[in-house]
Amino acid sequence: MDWLTILGLLAAICTTLAFLAQVIKTVRTKETGDLSLLMYLILTAGLALWLTYGLIIENVPIIGANSVSLVLSLTVLLLKIKHG
Fold this sequence. Notes:
The chain contains three helices and no strands. The protein is mainly alpha-helical.
């Protein structure tokens, strides 16, 4: 694995872990009133597009980060829709 792939993987880990804190809090509390539905709709769409892009160019860091982040974003989005 070359240094550029390692750099991409480290960036992917950092950004995904940062998002994980919000997901954990939202799952535990079920409080979504302060979260923007529009923001999570756009974020989820963007992550799906990034994942598609990563799959097309076969880039492991992009695929890994965006597949995990997409699941996390969908979790919050579904909770936001369910609990308002």
